[in-house]
Amino acid sequence: MAIVELWTAYTDDAATAGRPPPSQEGLRDVGLLLATQDLSPDMHAKRIVDAVTHLYDTVKQQQTNGTSLVLFLDLVRYAFEGLKVTKQFAALDTTCHQLLPVLLSLIDALFRAKPPVSDATLPAAVLTFVMDVLVGYQHSSALYVAGGNRLLAHFETIQQWLHSPDHVVDLSGIGRTLVLTVCCLARLHPG
Predict the structure, then answer these.
(1) Is 112:165 a contact under the CB 8 Å cutoff?
(2) Could you read off the pLDDT of 117-166 as tens digits, one per residue?
(3) What is the pLDDT of residues 106-116, one digit of tens each?
(4) What is the DSSP string of 163-175?
(5) How many of the other CB atoms lie within 10 Å of CB of 62?
(6) Could you say which of 89, 91, 172, 189 is the most buried, measured as most Cβ atoms within 10 Å of its Cβ?
(7) By residue range, what is the domain housing residue 88?
């Protein structure tokens, strides 16, 4: 089952039944179950990339439909983390290379506009996920080298946003850490 379909089914059912949002433990368990499905690396990658693309489209259109975008991203992150826990490195490699451009587009959309008030912590969650993707498991610099120029360009946007008084949540700590990480990668792997 696709992550977007699973989330939509849960939130539709929860809304009609009056249930509270899922717990982090529940999301972690579902993410691990999704990661242990017998799928090809390309299918695992497609499922995660499609979910982040859905999140990007939702942010771009400023529509939340009453659901938490942060909780949805947590589910996606736990599916990604599940691939790491189950040591599905081929799936992780495929996922990371396909996911990074979508995450950078999401960063661009988030940091050029105000996120929905109900999800003021979404930018921090996205930056944390980008950090997980960049330095999470790789034993080589291939992912960074492939997206390095685009990463550096997007961090100018983040830098401007961090200095703007318009945002609600203080992201200076995570923003500085992410910028420092990219600068260190650029220093270690020039060109």
Answers:
(1) no
(2) 557 778 888 888 988 888 766 666 777 777 777 777 777 777 776 676 66
(3) 888 887 766 55
(4) T-TT-SS--HHHH
(5) 11
(6) 91
(7) 3-188
How long is the chain? 191
Please state the domain count of the chain: 1
Query: Can you give the pTM of this predicted structure?
Result: 0.83
- Percentage of the chain beyond pLDDT 90 is 31
Rounded Cα–Cα distance for residues 189 and 173 (Å): 24
